[in-house]
Amino acid sequence: MASFENKLKDVIIKLHEIEALKFGMFKMKVGIESPVYVDLRSVISYPEILENIADLMWEFAALRNIECDQLCGVPYAALPIAALMSSRSKIPMVMRRKEAKKYGTKKLIEGKFNPGDNCVIVEDVVTSGSSVLETVVDLHSEGLNVTSVLVVVDREQGGSHNLSEKGVAMNSLCTLSKILQVLKEAGQINQDVVDSVRKYIAASQIHPDGTFLTPQPRTENVNPSRLTLPFTARADQAVNPVAAKLLKVMVSKQSNLCVAADVTSASRLISLAESAGPYVCLFKTHIDIVEDFSPQLIQDLLAAAQKHNFLLMEDRKFADIGHTVSLQYSQGIHKISSWADLVTVHPIPGEGVITGLKSAVTNLHRGCFLVVEMSSAGNLASPNYVASSMEISKKHPDFVAGIVCQTSGTVQNPGLLQLTPGVSLDCQNDGHLGQQYNSPEDIVMSRGADIAVVGRGIIQATDPAQAAQEYRAKLWAAYEKRVSSVKNV
Ligand code: S5P
């Protein structure tokens, strides 16, 4: 039987074939032009695709442990999807009228329900989330509880954030980023289309009242998102003390560059810390690849970090049960917790991996980055995995400093940092080794990176100091452009 992931890919490709997903230039309801158009109304003409979407939505709801007493479809495109889901699951359905009837009973909600019933909204596409919020208001006014919405496509333009601010969790079957990835891999769209849609996503975050968070004309009540708020202001919103410190270092050094110091000798590691140190905010190590490791190396690293004002991150990618990671973090020859300000962690074992790490440190002047999406080709991070990982991050704001990911919509909270690897000036991937590169500008503007990780682009350069300087300048310019696109209009 096909996996959930393969069925999802199949549906995305079919939606493109029937032109429910289109690329070009389209005028949106909110008045801006968009390079992508998502309209699932036509899906009723293709019963098989409709059925597949409803099945996937139901499977997805089960994966997310979403339970409810009622389903509510938002007219029009989501109605048949909700109806099929209701028919399959035998969960009854209610329907919100677009307008209250002018005669007879002035019911807003059709269908039978009891006050206090838990209702999940089903929607086809979410942009700012305003239609869903209107539905939430009406359902609440009739006494129904609404805490979740199931969406087929999240356009990643602020909907998830706007809904969560109103206490409604958005669960999306797929995002625009996922659609781009699937259609690109299937050879149905080219890199230019991918780039233009990514730029558009980063540049058009929308508040539910219709105002743009980036980079459209700024209005008085704009509520800047993570992507547009300057690092200085974000330092105040960081709960983890290392994240706050890192943001301050970034501002004072005007650097959003992290060097991935993937070298195998102690002398090369220290030489890199000395040469690239002045230009980076973060120095990332894989300490287990150093062949002549000794405690002295740590002393030298700490001295370089102090001299050049950067933080240290050990990219250990912990991925075991809590008890084991607490030992791996604090014991052994590397004693990581004694020197690394930050570590990387895979959320795959569940929340225990974080509680385990936290149990190994007595003060919380340490933090971690959760690796929720990877840069490598064919990685297994599904939308479901990403969303569940983000839920874990919310439970430990004191320890989670940020998220390692590839797409701009993943991190909403301005107090968290997005760290993104896969950056190179020449953008040449490394073949069968799987790394996929983007340019510094793209990584910050389209993919939403706050900090970009550069390894071989710097360490294999003839002059690593000069290369670090060049990456820093390009990355910082891209960050300034991202922020000022809202500030200066
Ligand atoms: O998804 C990821 C996550 C990480 S932390 N992809 C990555 O490449 N990394 C790390 O970033 C990887 O372990 C390496 O240290 C660095 C990228 O190095 P580069 O030489 O490809 O720039």
Question: What would your notes on this structure say?
Answer:
- The chain has 17 helices and 16 strands.
- With 489 residues, it is of the alpha/beta class.
- It is globular and about 75 Å long.
- It has two domains: 4-203, 3-Layer(aba) Sandwich (Rossmann fold), CATH 3.40.50; 224-485, Alpha-Beta Barrel (TIM Barrel), CATH 3.20.20.
- Helix 4 (130-141) links the parallel strand 6 (118-126) and strand 7 (145-154).
- Bound molecules: 6-sulfanyluridine-5'-phosphate.
- 6-sulfanyluridine-5'-phosphate (S5P) is lined by residues 260, 262, 315, 344, 371, 374-375, 404, 421-422, 435, 453-457.
**What is the multimeric organization of the chains shown?**
single chain
The number of distinct β-strands equals 16
Mean pLDDT: 90
How far apart lie the N and C ends? 53 Å
* Poorly predicted sequence stretches spanning 5 or more consecutive residues: 215-223
What is the CATH homologous superfamily assignment of the largest domain?
Answer: Aldolase class I
Strand order of the largest sheet: 9-10-11-12-13-14-15-16
Give the helix level as a range of percent: 25-40%
The major beta sheet can be summarized as:
8 strands, parallel, barrel
Q: How many individual helices?
A: 17
Shape: globular
Radius of gyration: 24 Å
CATH topology of the largest domain: TIM Barrel
Q: In CATH terms, what is the architecture of the largest domain?
A: Alpha-Beta Barrel
Integer count of domains: 2
Top-tier CATH class of the largest domain = Alpha Beta
What percentage of amino acids are in beta strands? 15-25%
Q: Strand pairing plus helix content: what structural class?
A: alpha/beta
Ligands bound, unique:
6-sulfanyluridine-5'-phosphate
